[in-house]
Amino acid sequence: MNLEDFPVFQADDFSVFDVPDLDGRMQAIKSVIRPKLEKIGAQFAQQLSYDLHRPVYAHVAKHARRTVNPPKDTWVAFSENPRGYKQHPHFQLGIWPTHVFVMFGVLYESPNKSAIVQRLENHAETIIKHIPADYFWMEDHTKPIYLSARDVHVEKFKDMAEKCKNRRQGDLLIGKKWSAEQILEMQAHQALASFQEVFQRLLSIYQLTSDIGNG
Question: Mind telling me which residue stretches traverse the membrane in this protein (predicted)?
Answer without folding.
Answer: none
